[in-house]
Amino acid sequence: MQIRRAEQRDLTALLEIYNAEVLHGVATLDLTPRTEAEWQIWLDSHNKGNHPLFVAELDGHVAGYASFSPFRDKEAYASTVELSIYVAQNDRKKGVATALMRHMLAEAARDPRTHSIVSVITAGNEASQQLHKVFGFSYCGKIPAVGKKFDRFLDIAYYWKLARQPESGEES
Description:
seven-stranded mixed β-sheet; globular; single chain; 27% helix
């Protein structure tokens, strides 16, 4: 498996992975598949500042991707990023998410602009919740019945982790 920065040539594969989850899963609460033009804007917003986008290639194809995006659109949140990891359905349980998580945490630890990482995980996505726990994310609570998909209301849970451990005497 190779993990590398996403490039323009990856747009179609990224879009296919994401839209499969829109149509069949709960990792995103988007209800309408994204268009190539919309996804181009998303792609262009990454690999700038502390918002990298990486792909995992497995056997010559894009098997998954991970990104840091702005947590909220307010300047005071600039050092907090929201982590997203998506893996193609046929490539799950092959270590892709684990490799992407490890890579993203190393990236965050190296980037002094990133202080903390947040993930918002939809209820029912136990694999993602377990992945975050294994990598030391703290469960920070849930908001019940906040989204509706597939004719049912879904909770979201917040997970959080510092990008690096503070030095002794330093505030977190």
